[in-house]
Amino acid sequence: MKHIDIRGWFNHESFYDMMVGRFSSGLFVELGCWLGRSSGYLGTKIKESGKDIVLDCIDDWSLKFYSKFGLEYSTPDEEKLSPVGIFKSNMDELGVKVNAIQMDVREAVKLYKDKSIDFLMIDLAPDDYSLTKEVIDLWTPKVRGVIAGKDYLEKFPTLRQAVDESFKGIKTEKGVWWFETNKS
Ligand SMILES: C[S@@+](CC[C@H](N)C(=O)[O-])C[C@H]1O[C@@H](n2cnc3c(N)ncnc32)[C@H](O)[C@@H]1O
User: Fold this and answer.
1) Domain span at residue 31?
2) Among 54, 87, 105, 108, whose Cα sits 20 to 30 Å from the Cα of 142?
3) Relative to the CA of 104, which ligand 1 atom is closest?
């Protein structure tokens, strides 16, 4: 199995390559993982690098969210699993080690000390301004390296608004935005 065999939304491989190259060790946290397409890619890259990087994957894996996008099971085995079960089974099949944390991201932030995260990736709900702003406000103090997110695109003006209100001097590439917190 490869990450592209997992259904989901992920097309920023080169950005994740850059992040794995940038840090020699540390803590990476991904908010919004669904069935693990992006997490599987990042986990594989970390493993291949041989670096001492821990990857925490946080999602509430709520069925409510899945029904919005239509969770279809592709095999009878998947049908027996919850969404988080499918995520974990996919990580096992890829042979990558991640910490799957099933929580609302607004609660999970309490698990982290200030300036403890080297790289934080946000991939939640691009059409939800208040969630995006709240998540940036809650999580930014926890990051000592790079904070980033997906969907910085014209079709998601309120996501861009939330990011622009929060940071001056972001970089963007192919819909990914990122900000170096240690340069502020
Ligand atoms: C676009 S999907 C993530 C896609 C994934 N990165 C991939 O590669 O396919 C967004 C995810 O955010 C999660 N999510 C949305 N709001 C959340 C919240 N408040 N707390 C935790 N997870 C949330 C959803 O359950 C969903 O899995």
Assistant:
1) 3-183
2) 87
3) 20
- What are 70-124's pLDDT values in tens digits? 556 556 566 567 889 989 999 999 999 999 999 999 999 999 999 999 999 999 9
52 strand-pairing partners: 25
Total tally of structural domains belonging to the chain: 1
Q: Which residues are near ligand 1 (CB < 6 Å)? A: 8-10, 32-34, 37-38, 59-62, 65, 104-105, 123-125
Contact 59, 17 (CB under 8 A): no
Q: Which two tokens stand for residue 76?
A: 């009878």
Nearest CA to ligand 1 atom 15: 124
- In which residue are the tokens 């695109």 written? 153
Nearest ligand 1 atom to alpha carbon 7: 9
Strands of the sheet containing 143-149, edge to edge, are 99-102, 52-59, 25-31, 117-122, 143-149, 176-180, 171-173
Residue nearest to atom 20 of ligand 1 (CA): 104
Q: Residues near 20 by Cβ (< 8 Å), separated by ≥ 6? A: 42, 45, 46, 49, 51, 53
Helical residues (DSSP H) of 61-156, grouped into ranges: 63-69, 76-79, 83-94, 105-108, 129-139
